[in-house]
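User: quick one
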Amino acid sequence: MTTNAAIHSSLWGENSLPLRPASQVMKLERLGAYHQSRLSFMRTLVRRIFRERWKIEPSVFNLDNDGYGTVVYEVQAPHGLFSFVLFSDYLSPDERNDRVIATKWDLTMALVEGKVDQEYIEKLRENVPKQEAGRVDARVFVLSRANRSARNFDYVVNQLAAGEQPDVAKIVEVGYLYRTTAVYGSGKLGMADWEKVREKHQDFARPFAGEMFVCLMLRNFSLLQVEHIARHKTPDTFNPMKPEIKRYFGIGNSTGLGMAPYLVNHPLLINQWIEMRELALARVRVLGSVNQQVRETISQLIDRSAQHTLETLTEDEWQTNNNKAVIDDMTCLKSRIECGFDSWDELIEHSEQHCSLQGQEMLVSCMLEIYPELVDELEDFHSAEEFLDLDPLMPAGQLKDIIENRYDWALAIDFDAEGARETYWYRSEEKMEPRLGSVADIEGKKKQMALGVGYAVRKCYNQLIDYIAKNPDDTTARFMVAHPKLRGIVRRIQGMNRCVYGDIQANLLDREVLPMHLLRAKLAFFGVSKFDPRSRLWVRNTMFQGAPLLEEIGQTFNDDWFMPLAPKQ
Amino acid sequence: MNISMNELKAALRRCFEASDYFVGNYEDAANMVLWLEKHGLNGLSEFKLALPYIGEDKNKPLSNVIYEDSTSATIDAHHRSALNCIAAAVDLAHAKALESGIATVTVHNCHNRIFILKALTDRGRSGISAAAYWQNGTDSVTEHTAAIRSGQRYPSYSEGVTNLTSNENDKQALTIICSSRVDLTSSLQNSKSHFISPKQVESNKKHTVEHGIEIDADVWEEINKIGLGVLVENTERSRKDAGGN
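Assistant: Done. Structure below.
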């Protein structure tokens, strides 16, 4: 088991491992090229559940023949007992809407500490289906909702009711029965704060563990529900779904702009996730032995990744081209592997010379897959508290040096160039949904969110230069008294300087900025697959596809659901 | 009604942002109010007193240093709320303490001074000991002190009613002492004072983390109402800005 001290010495100082530089890793386009890996939060959660053999069983099962009603699962984890409460309600097709602004859903869910009695279930019943329009208490720590897949749900019910299996080709097109449109935690709507979850509920004390768990439970319920409805529809002909096909069903997810400001507003947390991923890669490059078995395994993983990408269908031209490039990249890597290699650096260098960014990052994910002993323990180090403390004693001259060294990318941007400050981010009065506007709208510009880190650094630098010319020996504290409006950005510059990777290196105000990269980066850390952009501002994807089923808890578990493939039929 | 700490913080941030607090300050201000309330020190009651005035700070001059030497400074806050000026004053005391061992910063014309507790507490986490003292009121003068030792997470706080009459010269003044060498503690000599220990502050925090925050519906409504100022009106065009169909 590793420790904070061991991780620190691997990241900093003379004995540190050879990490990829921030100038390479923190480019927005590369972050937007990330894929799931064995450090992704879904993988981490499933490993924990299966290795610790959590007991997850329904304690209330009140569904009518059409699958509407209430279900409660009791979840016995090593450190506590939790209840997953789910309400299934009729929703007419014209009310089904994936946007955050929707007000009704097919399913609504809550993850609650402890057992729930009938009185508490009734209280939840009054509020959980309303989502943002309802209130819950601090026993609840995740809320979510989901809508049926119009293309799959009824089809699968009808197939099972007729004694047939769903056609795998259709699941390749849409790999889920439900699509979740929001998963809330961290104190929203009266729920428990993250501080409580982190300190009290060790089973969920990792970033987004509760949120991922709710999605996993939703996936489990969706499979149970289609069988339940089909069984009641035609009991004589009903046949349950084959396990290998069940495993290929995940949960759909729609993610919009709301996720993008999160990355900018939680820079220490995002840095921590990246540090762990890059540390894992550095460990593999230095410590991962390469032998014939390893060569065969990486070759198989490359094949699997290519096939998975081939089975990723999207109407989006940009993503289609990216996927084609990845498939070509995998062919290129396969050829290089067949020529033989003795160190991972050889393959990495080859990928950097010949592959797209998505191809390069796919290779990284494949490499991590081979060495659980070097990688998995880092999953316990994904948390970070967002303390961006000011260092008041730092000489103003040192602050200037930091900007020149760590934010050279920001100083290199010409913010006066046409389009460089064309985009702004704002919150709509409609559920405070984040939106992306153009400077043409004056009101929106006045109310824009402070996400232009690069531009703020540039403005700070200009004022700092003038200040130092007059006060060369002053401290940051004195500079702050003279320029209190710069407090936020100075604190950020100093705080991020304590990190290996620091800020995302992109001008988020640029007319050509692609928020999709931000969404993709965070979703990859979650562990999703099958990216299907619906515009440049929101993306559909699939969660938990290929994951083992809850009824398989307690059986052998080999943690091998990376880049899942369609089962043979 | 009951809300979470995160809800309060987010609503306060919008509220301060809409009141033209600048980036960095609106986060600080929200954290200062939340910190007091979370630790059982009536942050929302104090904030309710500040609420009618927070929109006025944008029209006041920025704080400036009116005297300074290696171990002390005097800052005029020009009748700003501590919510948007005190953090910089504590930073200055901190920097001087690191250079000289111990330092004093006095802030004049500063309102809502109890909000300094969050900034003081941050010094403890940074390995600096800090203390503050101020008097308040015109008819009945109260006095207040808070302190935190180096490396600690929770401060002590005392308040008491005095027999003093208000003095025009030290109205709205606050004295901050920081030291990197001496562990400072503070309590009032005043026999009519109430002392809250670091242990009690910690206990209050645990209760809030477990159960959330009770807030008057009217205060909650007012905070959110002011915060509406940062939201953009919903139009068909803005819906397209979210990428919707």
